[in-house]
Design goal:
about 120 residues, 2 domains, about 0% strand, extended
Length: about 120
């Protein structure tokens, strides 16, 4: 029951941030990040632990749905190459960089395990 109250409170907060970001023409994802940072620096708040499944099932789909409706397909097609590079190239680059750092910092880790 405790998690249910936290989830409802977080969803209410997201809705309020959405309304305020719409009213003041501020990007919604940036408003979410800034409000999360603001909440995290408040001393004395209890630690909230949510399972990743809850985040992926409850919080992420509405964000992706809203972003999909607000996507300009003309701009998307015009920027397909940079988007593909970021989605594929940067993921591969980051994977390689993390594997190199892990292998360098912990020599007992083999290359397959590092990747």
């Amino acid at each position: 029951m405790e998690n249910t109250a936290i989830i409802v409170l977080l969803l209410f907060g997201i809705a309020c941030i959405g309304i305020l970001s719409n009213k003041y023409k501020f990007p919604f994802p940036i408003a979410l990040v800034l409000s999360g940072v603001a909440i995290s620096i408040i001393p004395g708040l209890p630690v909230i632990e949510l399972a990743p499944e809850v985040v992926f099932i409850i919080f992420l789909p509405p964000l992706l749905y809203a972003a999909a409706w607000n996507t300009s397909w003309h701009d998307f097609k015009a920027n397909l190459r940079p988007i593909s590079f970021a989605a594929i190239g940067l993921v591969l680059f980051t994977t390689a960089l993390v594997a190199i750092a892990a292998h360098w910092l912990i020599p007992a880790i083999s290359w397959p395990v590092a990747f």
